[in-house]
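seq as requested:
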Amino acid sequence: MITQGEERYSELDNGQAGRYFKPACDIFESGDAVVVLVNMPGVNEQGVDVSIENNVLVISGKVDRPESVQHRFERREYEEGDYYRTLGLSEAIDTGRIEASMKDGMLRLTLPKSERHRPRKIEVKSA
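struct tokens:
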């Protein structure tokens, strides 16, 4: 139902400068929906953008950094960059009913299955 790439980060050819990290995500089925959890530390709900373009879910997150202070680092291990990830969606997803919520840097997307792809019980009648 969902396709994805494997790179940790990538340079984008969409006219945006800078480095973008591909956030880690978990994808699982839950009843009548597929749930996607996307880990974007440092991003709040105002910094997240979720859209659909040609059956591709586009997720981007902007890290809200404090005003830059000039430091001479002895060691710097934290890399800077915003988040960007795409997930291809199949026809099994009802894109008009996708819901998103954000809490503590974790984006939760609920992708409902379309009616015809939901499990259903078939009544068995006596002959």
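Strands lie at 2-3, 9-10, 20-21, 25-30, 33-39, 48-53, 56-61, 82-89, 99-103, 106-112.
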